[in-house]
Design brief:
CATH topology of the largest domain: Beta Polymerase, domain 2
Distance between the termini: 30 Å
Shape: elongated
Helix content: 40-55%
CATH class of the largest domain: Alpha Beta
CATH architecture of the largest domain: 2-Layer Sandwich
Structural class: alpha/beta
Order of helices and strands: EHHEEHHEHHHHEHEHEHEHEEHHH
Strand content: 5-15%
Radius of gyration: 32 Å
Number of domains: 3
Number of helices: 15
Length: about 425
């Protein structure tokens, strides 16, 4: 980034805007390229990228200094979405320069996510970057910044445990199932009641290797709909107990007023399964599974409070890891800013080196007659000696130029 360019980021996210506002500003993947082109065609914007997810819409731009203003980006949002300033402005945040760099690094590293440490955001940032490159909206300066953001995100993942523990009910259930069975490959899942959370847990289990889904629901139409999503099999609710022992993992969410599964049921199931273990994930309120079933050897029962306690403990672990990640981000922001400032000295350093090289070559040419006839080896030795002397003489001046640029004072004036 040169001195006549300025980094500006504006946006809204889950902490500043309700979903009613976020959904009005959301840009579908199919329109992201067109929106990015429109953004960079606005006056004063040299480069730009748009991040649009369910939890944020952000515009990161490199602008000409005289036009480096957030209201230019507010104008884009107003025009593109046909919204009034009063609708957008109360929810908008703006970052410039180093703070924009910090925010980007935090977003890519999932420190600014609704669930800290979730891995999806980095992929979404990379998708936006790919689109912006394809339409020519990102080149030299923003390109290097985005590449650095990806490196920082990888460093945060590798040097902290920020994403190592599950913090959603569904993912905690899957982790527990994996601990019980070792592997979920080939396991059968029974959904008793077809609520959204049990559906999500089943989806996670399938992603981790479970192969068969059985669905039992009092409303047959709902059971058929869920079973179709997972290429599963519907079990008539009145035949529930005859089929339960087929399942390795049972997810219950019926909302029934009394317990559906009792300790005696557990004993029957284990007998039918020849003592192969079963895992009951009871996310119903009131509970569907008698806690006494835990006393049956081979039956493992977790209710919604159990799952939430594990998720809360994991979230606390992530919070501690987030502090370490924030430290990494701060160090990386400082390094990036120092590199940018050092670049300001580059033209003066190049000019100094070129001038010194011209003097060195001229002096060698003048000394050629006095040196007489030199062998190739002798000529190479003279070249190496003069280059080494020149480099050593220039070193203090080049370091002074770099330090001057880092301190923001500009290149020091030449003495006449």
């Amino acid at each position: 980034m040169s001195r006549n360019q300025h980094l500006v980021l504006v946006g809204i996210n889950h902490t500043t805007a309700p979903i009613e506002i976020r959904e009005r500003l959301a840009i579908p993947a199919g329109r992201l390229a067109e929106a990015t082109r429109t953004l960079v065609h606005r006056p004063g914007i040299r480069e730009g990228i748009i991040f649009s997810t369910c939890n944020r819409v952000e515009l990161l731009t490199l602008q000409e200094s005289e036009a480096a203003r957030g209201d230019s980006l507010l104008g884009f949002l107003q025009d593109y979405f046909a919204l009034s300033p009063s609708t957008i402005t109360p929810h908008l945040y703006e970052y410039r320069g180093g703070e924009a760099v910090r925010h980007l690094f935090r977003v890519a590293s999932s420190l600014d996510s609704m669930v800290v440490g979730e891995p999806q955001i980095l992929g979404q940032v990379k998708e936006s970057y790919t689109v912006a490159r394809e339409v020519g909206a990102v080149n030299g300066s923003l390109d290097s910044l985005l590449q650095r953001a990806f490196t920082v995100a990888k460093k945060v993942r590798s040097e902290t445990q920020i994403g190592s523990s599950s913090v959603s009910i569904a993912s905690v259930a899957v982790d527990l199932a994996r601990k019980i069975f070792g592997s979920l490959q080939g396991k059968t899942v029974l959904l008793v009641g077809a609520g959204k959370m049990s559906e999500l847990a089943a989806r996670h289990l399938i992603q981790q290797g479970a192969t068969s889904i059985l669905v039992a629901n009092r409303t047959l139409e709902r059971a058929e709909k869920i079973a179709a999503q997972f290429h599963g099999q519907v079990v008539a609710f009145e035949d529930l107990y005859a089929h339960t022992s087929r399942a390795d993992i049972v997810i219950t969410s019926t909302g029934a007023p009394v317990k559906i599964f009792t300790k005696s049921h557990g004993q029957q199931f284990l007998h039918s399964r020849r003592n192969r273990p079963m895992f009951f994930i009871d996310i119903a309120v009131p509970r569907d599974v008698d806690p006494g079933m835990n006393q049956v050897e081979g039956c493992f029962v977790y209710d919604i409070d159990d799952l939430q306690q594990v998720a809360a403990a994991n979230l606390a672990d992530r919070s501690r890891e987030a502090a370490a990640a924030e430290s990494i981000i701060s160090q990386e922001v400082d390094k990036f800013q120092q590199r940018l400032q050092s670049r300001g000295a580059a033209p003066a350093i190049i000019a100094l080196q070129q001038n010194a090289e011209a003097i060195r070559e001229a002096e060698l040419a003048r000394a050629a007659k006095r040196l007489g006839s030199l062998t190739p080896e002798q000529r190479e030795a003279v070249e190496a000696l003069t280059r080494s002397l020149t480099a050593k003489l220039l070193h203090p001046q080049m370091e002074a130029l770099r330090e001057s640029a880092r301190s923001g004072q500009g290149a020091p004036a030449e003495k006449s």
